[in-house]
Amino acid sequence: MAAETSFWKTKTLAQMNQREWESLCDGCGRCCLQKLLDDETEEVFYTRVICRYLDKDRRCGCYETRHIKVPECVWLKPEDVEQFHWLPATCSYRLIAEGKELPDWHPLVSGRRDSLVDAGIAVTCQQLVKDDEVPEDDWQEHIIQWVEQ
Ligand code: SF4
Ligand code: SF4
Hints:
This protein is α+β, with helices and mostly antiparallel strands. 19% of the residues lie in helices and 9% in strands. Residues 32, 51, 53-54, 60, 62, 66, 70, 73 line the site of one iron/sulfur cluster.
């Protein structure tokens, strides 16, 4: 076990402090993929179209100003936990919100930042297209399906 205290096992999302909350993110980059919503079923579809600001190391290129540059960029907050169902099934915040365990590949569990890359969880920019390179009307042609992990 990497962390001395497995806070994610004993605290709810609302009980976590800022450092704990931030460390819960595995850095997979999946939430930075563009999504399409079916208005009738409210089903969320992920695409291989990625936000233009995500770099090849899955870091946001405009983190401090992201809500100005990308108004639709979602800011996860504990009070919005009821809406976390749209997040990827592997997302730590969704897992904890649903009362599930963090997987072995999560950096907090493995103690290695790259363990989610080895597990094939992290998005790899080589397989993606930036959202300023594909017209929005064409995004539905890039819908993907996650392989369950
Ligand atoms: S999907 Fe969840 S765990 Fe992955 S980068 Fe986004 S917020 Fe972090
Ligand atoms: S602005 Fe940054 S955090 Fe928001 S979707 Fe784009 S890359 Fe991700």
